[in-house]
Design goal:
Layout: H1 16-29, E1 40-46, E2 61-70, E3 73-78, H2 84-113
Antiparallel strand pairs: 1-2, 2-3
């Protein structure tokens, strides 16, 4: 929802009822956070080292990894092909929740400024 104005308060011009309705829409759109993952999927090509393997002269063996960064360290976890779609959805859900929370926060801030929100 693009409702920016020149004062940097994107929701100021909307009615309280409109804000409350949009807030409920955002809550209804929120994916279930039970399995969200903050990470990225990456593909690596690795050469196995066997002299007669096809990877010795060409492209390496492709493997899928989950790259995550926590506590100052990047970690790679191998992802079996059978988990690829599920892990990808968990990452997408995390990104969607993050986007929805940002808009939800802006709406709640405007409602707070109007003293129309129970904290």
């Amino acid at each position: 929802m693009n409702t920016t104005n020149k004062f940097g308060r994107p929701y100021k011009s909307l009615t309280t009822d409109t804000l409350l309705a949009r807030r409920q829409e955002l809550l209804d759109m929120m994916p279930n956070p039970a399995h969200v993952i903050r990470a990225s999927l990456i593909t690596r090509s690795i050469k196995c080292g066997k002299p007669n393997c096809r990877c010795a002269t060409g492209e390496g063996h492709k493997s899928l990894y989950l790259s995550s960064y926590y506590n100052g360290k990047t970690q790679l976890d191998s992802v079996p092909k059978s988990y690829q779609d599920k892990v990808s959805q968990c990452i997408k859900d995390y990104e969607e929740i993050t986007t929805l929370l940002a808009e939800l926060s802006c709406i709640n801030l405007e409602l707070f400024r109007r003293r129309e929100i129970d904290l």
